[in-house]
Amino acid sequence: MIPNGQDLNETLEALKQNPLFYLSLGSKELFHSDFIQWLCVAHPRLVSAALSEYLYEDTTSSQAVADREKHNLDLVLRLPGFAPLVVENKVKSLVRVEQLDKYDQRIASSFRNATKMVLSFGSPWESGCYKSWRHLSYESFADALEFNVAATVSPAFDRALVERYVAMVRDLAKVASHARVSDLSEDYIGLEHYKALKDARLHDLYYKIRADHLASLITNRLEQLAPVFEGSEEEWVEQLTSNPSFFVGTAFTRGTAMINVYARSCTTGYTVGLQVQNGQFRLCMIVPTKGTSKAARRAEREKVASGCLFNGRCWFEFHTFDGHACPEGATDAPTEQDGFLGFDPGFVYRYKRIGPRFTVTKLLEVVVAYAKLMLDHCQPRASDDPRADPSFSPDRGIVS
Question: What is the pTM of this model?
Answer without folding.
Answer: 0.80
